[in-house]
Design goal:
Layout: H1 3-15, H2 27-40, H3 44-51, H4 55-76, H5 86-89, H6 106-109, H7 115-131, H8 143-162, H9 174-177, H10 190-222
Helix pairs in contact: 2-3, 2-4, 4-8
InterPro entries: DUF8040 (IPR058353), HARBI1-like (IPR045249), HARBI1_dom (IPR027806)
Cofactor: a divalent metal cation
Main location: nucleus
Length: about 220
């Protein structure tokens, strides 16, 4: 992020009264610690050493900035349309089977029939991961915070783009900048159960759509 864009974001957060200086940290430093965490998948200890603050201070301001950026996101992220695409509505082989497309995440459900939208989504996710490596791996943050981190990354990406920031993402050695995280489901407890439940729900929805399409096809053949 270019310095002038960083300052514009600081000004916006101050203007909206989402962040303010404290006795020990300025808004600039609070945001810098947050951006460093996202850009390097930095652990609390990494940020402590970089900015010379206690673990408690680092954790507190990460949460505060994350909350502030997510509130600001409403201005910079357009919510998905609740309407069904005209392409889907007007194509017999898609409607009504894919009428929920736009309300769900295509790659999660694995709808290969809507290849154009899926490719776009995958490209966007790839760009976000390059700009914010914290999205490439599991983190020490709870699942609810991980969701907010994704929203924050999208908001920051859009903010940079709106302010004519560079689209080029530096290619650096991620292994040297990312924190090694523990392996195994046991390290994440209930988070894994939640994600597995969502994957199961997605698989169930695919099966329901496939069965509906098959039944309609059989009815058409008998007619």
């Amino acid at each position: 992020m270019e310095p002038y864009i960083f300052q514009a974001l600081v000004d916006r957060l101050r203007e909206k009264s989402l962040l303010c200086n404290s006795k020990r940290t300025t808004v600039e430093e609070q945001l810098a610690m947050f951006m460093y965490t996202l850009a390097h998948n930095a652990s609390n200890r990494d940020v402590q050493e970089r900015f010379q603050h206690s673990a408690k201070t680092v954790s507190r301001y990460f949460s505060k900035v994350l909350k502030a950026v997510n509130r600001l996101a409403r201005e910079y992220i357009e919510p998905p349309s609740t309407l069904t695409s005209q392409v889907i509505q007007n194509t017999r082989k898609f409607f009504p089977y894919f009428k929920l497309v736009g309300k769900v995440l295509l790659p999660t459900l694995g709808f290969s029939n809507v290849r154009l939208n899926k490719n776009h989504v995958e490209r966007i996710i790839g760009i976000l991961k390059m700009r914010f490596p914290i999205l490439k791996v599991a983190t020490f943050h709870p699942i609810d915070s991980q969701t907010d981190i994704v929203v924050a990354a999208c908001m920051l990406h859009n903010f940079i783009h709106i302010h004519n920031g560079t689209d080029a993402v530096e290619d650096f050695d991620n292994e040297a900048n990312e924190t090694i995280v523990p392996n195994g489901d046991e390290s994440y407890g209930e988070d894994i159960d939640t994600m597995n439940s969502e994957l199961t729900a997605g698989a169930r929805k695919k099966d329901e759509i496939a069965m509906q399409m098959w039944n309609d096809y059989c009815s058409y053949r008998r007619a």
